[in-house]
Design brief:
mainly alpha
Length: 77
């Protein structure tokens, strides 16, 4: 693997963990070190850090809070 890639990965432990979980990326980066941007995109999807995933998680929390409030309201009666 290219020296630039290894030094970049040393600064990003989340990407190191992603590569360890998906070893095919060792091959991709060894063949084409310019795929670091693609690696970061895939890691964001893997860790749930994309905007749609964050919005879905926030929506789920709001729904849960609404259900808890509704449950508390029914228990109050």
């Amino acid at each position: 693997m290219d020296k630039r890639v290894t030094t970049f990965l040393q600064t990003r432990p989340d990407l190191q963990q992603f590569i360890r979980s998906n070893p095919i990326w060792y091959r991709f980066l060894a063949r084409d070190p310019n795929q670091l941007a693609e690696l970061e995109k895939e890691a964001k999807v893997f860790y749930g850090k994309t905007m749609p995933q964050r919005l879905e998680k926030a929506n789920d929390r709001v729904q849960l809070l609404g259900m808890l409030l509704q449950f508390a309201e029914t228990m109050k009666d």
